[in-house]
């Protein structure tokens, strides 16, 4: 079946009170339209047509991709008009599926069954039974329960308003009928808009079958018109993520205090404490423990490692059985080999830290290779930057860097070498040697302290 998908995203979203077009407001760190695109892609369409209008340039710039055909709708004359703008770009489709750029929680399964039920010959509607359907178009059925039409709230009679089956707006149009229906719409209604929903009565009048399906939950089809609704969607998304992680074998100290903004892959018997944020692509292997208030972005944490409270990891690979934090900051390009230990107030960047090496306190290690079993004393700084260029520091296996050493790169500390505390090391240190690079202590006997003059 040749499937084309049209996503409506031209509206302004006035109630967001924002310079950002509504569909770019994020849920779980991703624009709402990005979620709709992901769902659309999962169905393997021939093309995705996104109808844009308000903030069109920003929307396109933010989400442009090869499989998207951007369609401009200069004036928002209604949902039917919006879909019609995409029609000239759609040839011989079996089905045209209409989605909304501000409905991010729709599940692929729900959409797939709508699409499959409708096929190429029927009109497919996704409807939802609601406690409070106000604002929604109502599904009008005859005495036998057959769908007759959709009537918009503003056009509905008192009796029609009592109907609790609402139109989600998501719809599958048979490709061979779409053009004829959409071109035949009128805007003779309460809002003077070309309603997409009017195709239902047209289908019925032409004896085209109407297939109705429903989502598993109302949240799936909920859109965000304001920031309150956006927050509801965000929490709903997060609760889905937490449930999934628990199902896969992760213990969460509090499922309501974990935020996932990306794709997280987990092993089993992982413990995640409260207020953790996982962003981008994160992989967490078996038996990892993550302490409270950690932020982990685009990183891998291998089996058995412990990330203690308030640590911030980005673009980092933590090997097996490592110990990180509390208060560690691992920046992009950090790679910890098995059993390495990074303690409090340590910042690393582009640092390869060897097996079992330790950087326990108050250090900056950047553009560096730290050998297996090396010990980096408290307050050690790799001086990697001269204000213009960056240079590399190499620290050999089993080296011992005394506290408060400044290692001025480019510099190499040989295997098993030692630097004396407080050294400013500007030259390479041979293996096994001791480098002392600090002024010698002088003691002045019987020193008289100054006395207060007046
Ligand atoms: C629409 C449906 C209604 C349904 C509701 C679900 C119609 C006529 N009504 O009503 O039955 O219950 O959605 O939320 O379809 N848009 C465009 N261009 C336009 C008009 C709209 O891109 O010219 C986009 C908007 O940005 C929005 C979506 O289409 O994302 C829905 O438009 P909106 O005007 O909010 O439709 P509703 O009145 O909510
Ligand atoms: Ca709406």
TrEMBL record:
SUPFAM superfamilies: Nucleotide-diphospho-sugar transferases, Trimeric LpxA-like enzymes
Active site: 361 (proton acceptor)
Enzyme class: transferase
Swiss-Prot/TrEMBL catalytic activity: alpha-D-glucosamine 1-phosphate + acetyl-CoA = N-acetyl-alpha-D-glucosamine 1-phosphate + CoA + H(+); N-acetyl-alpha-D-glucosamine 1-phosphate + UTP + H(+) = UDP-N-acetyl-alpha-D-glucosamine + diphosphate
Domain MobA-like NTP transferase, residue spans: 6-121
Region (Linker): 228-248
GO CC terms, sorted: cytoplasm; membrane
Record EC number: 2.7.7.23, 2.3.1.157
Region (Pyrophosphorylase): 1-227
Single GO MF descriptor: glucosamine-1-phosphate N-acetyltransferase activity
Domain of life of the source: Bacteria
UniProt-annotated stretches for the region N-acetyltransferase: 249-454
Required co-factors: Mg(2+)
HAMAP family recorded: GlmU
Name of the protein described by the UniProt record: Bifunctional protein GlmU
Taxonomy of the source species: Bacteria, Pseudomonadati, Pseudomonadota, Gammaproteobacteria, Pseudomonadales
